[in-house]
Write a structure and sequence with these properties.
The structure is a homodimer of 458-residue chains.
Chain A lengths: L3 H8 L1 H12 L11 H18 L2 E6 L6 E6 L7 E7 L19 E3 L2 E3 L7 H18 L5 E7 L7 H8 L9 E4 L11 E6 L1 E10 L5 E2 H4 L6 H10 L22 H8 L5 H9 L12 H6 L3 E10 L8 E2 L2 E10 L5 H15 L5 E10 L2 E2 L5 H14 L4 E5 L4 H10 L3 E3 L15 E3 H18 L4
Parallel strand pairs in A: 3-6, 3-7, 7-17, 8-16
Antiparallel strand pairs in A: 1-2, 2-6, 4-5, 5-18, 8-15, 9-13, 9-14, 10-12, 11-13
Helix pairs in contact in A: 1-4, 1-14, 2-4, 3-4, 4-14, 5-13, 12-14
Chain lengths: 458, 458
């Protein structure tokens, strides 16, 4: 592995990191309306850099939410065309007081860069852009045709890009997509993700009295929406993690015996995982399935927060008029968001306790997806990863959802190469999110070699 | 009824209301640390007025929280001594966007004054003080001996005054207490409250993973604290409102047949109550008990809020490391806060789901209490109320808790006269709290007559 582009990456790694820090300082939290201007600033930041390194037709594409960033370079005659995808938006930072260094002041510690978005996904987007810069700077152009599409709503469901992709615009004509928003299965173990869970994210609202009431005066007569929510939630999943919504599991396509065998040989220690990644007294979930099956190939149901009522310090003796639960479900192949939502909504209506009205709302959805491993882009990726990391690639799934991968398939017919460089303990969506600096560096080099390998595909 | 003091009240009613508005403009929310200075301001406001009208030894008494306000006038030789109690602190204002006029901009509408604290309890404290002013202004002194003790922590458990009362200070030596923090059973129906429920207010915290986790990556393996809370809460009370904590109901003293008979003859229409006070599709609670029994003489369990996780707009796919439920129970005679809390805490520990740790905390407590109706102060009150309202007094209980009433009894041996002038639809602890202006006026007159009646007690 002696390409000039790889040497360029190593010479400029300090600058690359400094630039990433500037990118990370922009608090582009897509779900909070007060950060809308920051999201646009992050989009502009990428667009400016894409122009500087040599990409063409760079522009922001407006959506109903935060803008997309488009760029292309299409002068590699006869070569395949990659559609590079990543997202510049980040998760909120709460609980803010658990961050060791402030989320938008990128800080190096222990060989990592800590910041909100460090690995999800700004660091990986920056690795993609820097791989292109290295190829431009040392090759006078790119070895393959490249289109870039970066979005700013991945953390809130990606409605803007979903609409754009569904419109099948000529700007997205390509042979495959490169998606860098995933992680290595273990440190130093090159990994490609070939399966994702889908999801539905819902709000479940329960309304009782017409106004907040005093719990002394009305306790014993007025319905309590939080208590009703607790009753409903407790009927959605039993104590063994089995989801009780009738029909929920119907039609699920299980992993193949070969895939299950490969998973069983992965370096995974359940006790280490419990202790160091989760940190709970024990793991939970459906009996009869391994942790990897439960998190990659089985549907789940989680509660993310329960807004309403009194949440301040101290005591307020209120029976709130309404309460809400934010409930999401992860879906696996064979399930669809719409059908799952309907089963859920019907069941919730059916089990609603007396005295309250319930309303469900579907806020976001995404299909589950699987990628075949024997396509030439996956093969090119495994070659590139072997050169950079010195090991054979493992194929895994992710329990998370990247709805865009399903959209690229459904609307554009593009297979996705999900090549990402996070680590399992990177604290994505949590305080102290980080990106391992070695992975940032080798990630850039892996992407450089990947594009060089794609140039060899006939 | 032709006392000079009554005439004085009628001449000065506009000024009395203007003064109350100034009192209501002070946002003395005791539970929010950022309003500590406002609480002190409210205490100073009262102290200044007490001095102005002629009370003596007026001073603030420091506590571990917000200060008490003390005053006395003890020159009615041979007469009984009243201990006047009220509180100057108020509840928080959330949900703020449901207020028609801002909570700290007192506004007159439809014969009411709307503001946080209008009736609970600033308006009633002001009625007490104005009754004393009228007696001072027209009698050259008071017809009875009076001590005043006003607190600023009633809405957060009243720890400061509880400690002070428990210390049996000479300043609180009296023959009875007058507590004005209750309401009429119905408009124009003079009412004395002779029973209160006690309470315990707890926090139930559930901890799962060591940090917030991504629900895609970890969903199916990591415990979800909100879901665990839902499971626990659903096991605390069944669908018929029966509380499932073992031993919870043991030792309860039911109301006498006479008391139940009197309640049955009160003007109470359950359907009107459901429609106009609660506004839910139906009422809830224990089968086999009337609404008045359920809210006055049966214990209850309510959830006030569930802090933790993500409560913003939109979607955040987090499995929170911890979640909390604010859970309170109302107690009736025969139950004690300490025993009830122990039963609850033990049961919660026992039913805690696998994978999570639970912790319960007792934040506030108060004893239930009953007052005998055949004491001379209650008799004096019924005489006064008959003169002002033209009707016989009804004796009711309140489902709410006024822990100080139990403390006055336990530590000082004082019976309490709970004479208050709120109305059932005054929205206490809720948006659009109000005080009916007629009740403010007749409340002052009732208190004037009450003190005049007490002067006749041998």
């Amino acid at each position: 592995m002696s390409s000039a582009a790889i040497s360029f990456c190593r010479q400029h790694n300090v600058r690359f990191l400094d630039e990433l820090k500037n990118f990370l300082r922009i608090p582009s939290i897509s779900t909070l309306p007060e950060h809308a201007a920051d999201c646009r600033k992050a989009a502009d930041f990428i667009a400016t850099e894409l122009r500087r390194i040599g990409m063409e037709n760079v522009r922001l594409i407006e959506t109903t939410g935060h803008p997309l960033v488009y760029a292309d370079w299409l002068h590699a005659t006869g070569k395949h065309t990659a559609l590079i995808y990543g997202h510049y938006d980040v998760q909120p930072t709460d609980p803010i007081d658990e961050w060791i260094s402030p989320p938008f002041e990128p800080t190096e510690r222990n060989g990592n860069i800590y910041a909100r978005g460090a690995v999800d996904d700004k660091g990986q987007v920056w690795a993609q852009i820097k791989s292109l810069e290295a190829l431009f700077a040392t090759g006078g152009g790119l070895p393959v045709n490249v289109r870039c599409i970066f979005e700013g709503e991945e953390e809130v469901g990606g409605e803007g890009i979903a609409d754009y992709v569904a419109s099948k615009p000529p700007e997205l004509k390509a042979d495959f997509a490169l998606v860098s928003d995933t992680e290595l299965f273990a440190p130093n173990l090159p990994t490609l993700c070939v399966g994702l869970r889908g999801m539905i994210y819902t709000e479940l609202e329960v309304r009782g009295a017409k106004t907040d009431l005093h719990s002394g005066v009305y306790g014993g007569a007025a319905p309590n929406p939080f208590f009703s929510l607790a009753q409903i939630l407790a009927k959605l999943k039993d104590e063994n993690g089995h989801i009780l919504i009738p029909g929920f599991y119907d039609g699920i396509i299980p992993p193949s015996p070969e895939e299950l065998k490969a998973w069983a040989s992965l370096p995974f220690d359940e006790e280490q995982y419990r202790l160091h990644e989760v940190g709970s007294t024990q793991l939970v979930g459906e009996a009869g399935y391994s942790v990897l099956e439960r998190t990659w190939a089985r549907p789940t149901l989680d509660v993310h927060g329960m807004p309403g009522g009194f949440i301040g310090a101290g005591a307020k003796t209120v029976i709130p008029a309404k309460a809400m639960a934010k409930v999401s479900m992860r879906l696996v192949p064979g399930m669809t968001p719409q059908k799952t939502y309907e089963l859920y909504a019907n069941y919730v209506r059916k089990i609603a306790p007396a005295g309250v009205e319930v309303e469900t709302r579907l806020i976001h959805q995404g299909d589950a997806c699987l990628v075949t491993v024997n396509n030439p882009y996956i093969q090119a990726a495994t070659h590139a990863l072997f050169e950079v990391w010195g090991k054979e690639t493992v194929f895994i799934r992710s329990g998370g959802s990247i709805p865009i991968v399903g959209d690229f398939d459904k609307h554009l017919g593009l297979p996705s190469v999900m090549m990402g460089f996070g680590l399992p303990d990177d604290n994505i969506h949590a305080p102290n999110e980080k990106f391992h600096l070695k992975n940032f560096q080798l990630g850039i080099e892996s992407l450089v070699r990947f594009f060089e390998e794609v140039a060899n595909i006939k």
